Amino acid sequence: MTGAGVRSVGDLIDSLTRKVADFPEPGIQFKDLTPVFADREAMTAVTHALADIASAADLVAGIDSRGFLAAAAVAGRLGTGVLAIRKAGKLPPPVHSERYDLEYGTATLEIPADGIDLRGRRVVIIDDVLATGGTLGAATRLLERVGADVTAAAVVIELTALGGREAVAPLRVHSLSRA
Q1: Which of these is catalytic: 66, 86, 121, 165?
Q2: Number of Cβ within a 10 Å radius of residue 138
Q3: Name one GO molecular function term (predicted).
Q4: Where does 22-179 have alpha helices with state H?
Q5: Which residues pair with residue 60 across a beta bridge?
Q6: Is pLDDT above 60 for 4?
Q7: Which of 103, 122, 141, 172 does the annotation list as catalytic?
Q8: Is 109 helix (H, G, I), strand (E, B) or coil?
């Protein structure tokens, strides 16, 4: 508790995160933030904390799909645009893409190749969970390849034992909660 009965953002996240064993594959413990995002106090606290981190950004980029929720809320609070970094096959062509490994397979991220000029824009990437760093690393490489200046990343929960922060170094990573 902080102050007179007010819980910290980390406490709110920890108390509301649902832990799901063996999803999406055996041996993986999934951190479901749906209850965090559905809770008025928690979502407000998460949005404010992430907006503080992203305050100097020209654009906030959210990673498919739960990162979209937080990134859109942050962009609304900051008065910036939001870019959805999508999983493969969700955007019409042409797209820029980046393939990467994750803890339970491989995947590809995409952004539009037309209609958005990212050159020189200061971007903060937002996602729900930092695990091994594969997704965040791919998003960073994708944005930098098209000329964006990725200044930082912010995540709601960081799974510290999986080494994601080290995998994306020297990118500055901010986490609201660590598990």
Answers
A1: 66
A2: 22
A3: AMP binding
A4: 34-38, 40-53, 66-78, 134-145, 164-167
A5: 82, 124
A6: no
A7: 103
A8: strand
Q: 25: pLDDT confidence band, cut at 50, 70 and 90?
A: confident
* Amino acid symbol at 98: E
For residues 43 and 69, what is the distance between their CA atoms, to the nearest angstrom? Answer: 10
Cα four-point dihedral sign 92, 120, 107, 128: negative
Residue 68's H or E segment, with its range, is helix 66-78
> What residue type is 154 in one-letter code?
A
The residues near 135 (Cβ < 8 Å, ≥ 6 apart) are: 63, 100, 102, 107, 109, 127
- Confirm whether 66 is a catalytic residue: yes
100 and 139 Cβ atoms separated by less than 8 Å = no
**Tokens standing for 174?**
């901010």
Token duo for residue 80: 């910036």
Is 99 assigned a catalytic role?
Answer: no
Q: What residues pair up with 153 in beta bridges, in sequence order?
A: 125, 173
Q: Which residue has the tokens 């910036």?
A: 80
Task: Label residue 2 by pLDDT band (50, 70, 90).
Answer: very low
Give pTM, 2 decimals.
0.93
Rounded Cα distance, 74 and 81, in Å: 9
Alpha carbon distance 63, 136 (integer Å): 8
Helix %, strand %, coil % of the chain (to 5): 35, 35, 30
